[in-house]
Design a protein that fits this description.
mainly alpha, 6% strand, 4 strands, disordered C terminus, two-stranded antiparallel sheet, 130 residues, 4 helices
Length: 130
């Protein structure tokens, strides 16, 4: 069982270590083989109705570690916000299960955006729904 948290700090950045040489030479093959294992394991648990939040967190962290093992780098700011190149704006990506969104969830996201505008005076630049 892995740790259920990337870091105990309020931000996360990939460490200085590089992935294994094989992963750097063949990143797609290594990464996709790891992802297939993650999806297969999660599928087995879900079919038994055992895939809970704890397992979702574990598979998410394993996915991050898989990307890092092939040379991927992460720099997540406070509370998961991703600092942009200009150094003044952040990207925030809400987790929407299965890509399905309801009017209620859209209202809650709008409430958060309005609080952000009121609190720090920065308006969101754009939002994309896929």
């Amino acid at each position: 069982m892995i740790d259920v948290c990337l870091t105990s700090e309020s931000a996360y950045q990939t460490g200085g270590r590089l992935g294994h040489w094989f992963g750097r030479c063949y990143p797609a093959a290594v990464f996709y083989s790891k992802i297939l294992c993650i999806v297969y394991s999660a599928s087995k648990l879900a079919k038994k109705d055992l895939y809970d939040n704890h397992h979702w967190i574990e598979s998410s962290i394993t996915t991050v570690r898989s990307l890092e093992s092939v040379g991927g780098r992460f720099d997540l700011g406070e509370k998961g916000a991703i600092p942009q190149r200009d150094g003044q704006t952040y990207a925030v990506n809400p987790h929407i299960p299965c890509g399905l969104i309801t009017p209620e969830l859209l209202r809650r996201l709008a409430d958060v955006a309005e609080k952000m505008i009121d609190r720090i005076g920065i308006e969101p630049l754009s939002a994309a729904l896929v």
